[in-house]
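The record is kept unedited without comment:

——
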Amino acid sequence: MHAPLPAAGAATSTAPPATDHPLAIVEPICAVFRRTLRAVGLKYTPERARILDAVVSKTAPFHAEELIAELRTTHSAAPHPKALTPVSRVSKATVYRTIRLLQDAGIVQQIPLGAEQATYILAYGARPSGVLVHTDTGRVSLFDAPEIVAVRDQACRRLGLTPHGHQFIVYAGSASHAPHARAHPLEA
């Protein structure tokens, strides 16, 4: 029986402290993941290791289906079937379950885009940023937002809390695509 997992996307204390110091010590990402797996009675399998490696290599927001396609492409490019180190196939279910575990570990963060396919970003060790969702195209961009981090930290200090992370998402589209666009009554 596995221990219950925290809610997906819940803040965890495993995330490294946000710092710009070049010599900041950050716990290795695989150690964070292994600890999370141990806490719920699971093992760090070769399939989970491959998924973690694929996620860490992402420099832009990604979908689970992209990850699955990439892992299958890597599998099809595997060495000869009789090689000593064959690449094992990773199932779609394993990818989705592992992404959930990576969220619980604070390694990836899901960007809520509605009922469409979920989009994820690498969060562990990354500088805090904002997310801009282009409502016209569905494209997702990251942007640097140090002032948001300052507001978060100030709000937490006032309440005697320690921030463990945040999520700042802006949904925006061109004015020409907004039906009957008009100013909010309080903005007039």
